[in-house]
Structure prediction request, 293 residues.
Amino acid sequence: MIKQQIPCQTRGAEPAREGTSVVTRDERVLRHYALSDEAGRLWATPRGELTRRRTWDIFERFLPESGQVADIGGGPGTHASHLARLGYDVVLVDPVPKHIEQATAVAAGFPCHLGDARSLPLPDASFDAVLLMGPLYHLADAADRQSALREAFRVLRPGGRLLAEVISRYAWIIDATARGLLGDQDIWDTFDLNLRTGQSNIPDRPDDVFWAYFHRIEEVGPEVERAGFIHERLLAVEGFAGPLGNLEELLREPEQLMRAIRLTESEPAMLGVSAHLMAVAAKPVIGLGAAAE
Prediction:
């Protein structure tokens, strides 16, 4: 497959209304990634390495052994490149032009499309697996998340597998505590907002602040099922290891650490401590019309 960058019509960032200072949520996400090093996030720190290794561990166990994979919200191509090297036929879609440029530069023979998870430039029933590794937390409105899930449903073949990542409702509380930020009153206001609404930040924060929706554990399965999927399980990505102070040391023997995390990856009492959670679901083989309505 030839490398390419394919612009397409999208429901991307809507511009602020003329004469106002309103900045849409979509614009905030685009600006955040324009200023951040997403390409290095999963490589530069022990926590990033843990997230990457655990994500690939989940891929190895829950993706089909081969086939076509759509990486929706695939960023600069970290996961898509890995899967392409393993022999999967990969297509990447992302709404950030900077990410498309980066992904195209590293693409191991897979196409990179500029596009939106809510309106995919992909044909019906054409993929064996779909990855949603960012849309379900960057789309803060439930209706938008449903649009993304229904688009994933549309492009999956019957029996196809969905792997969809969300951020835990308690992720920022744990992270901010580990970083020693509890002396800032604004942090406590943000915690209150997180717990009450799931929103990561208030609307009048600076444009480059991380913008996301933080899921409660019990929300994930029903949200996936409303789009027509059969929700199979919810897995902790980093699990209990994310906040550990000796993570760098533990990663010197990563296979042992992966093995330990797997022991509690689906334990309900342990899920909330993980920064990221992975929903594993499937498109039904029968009853598609009723499920998709």
The chain has one domain: 23-168+215-292. Residues 1-23, 288-293 have pLDDT under 50 and may be disordered. The longest strand covers residues 156-168. The chain has 14 helices and nine strands.
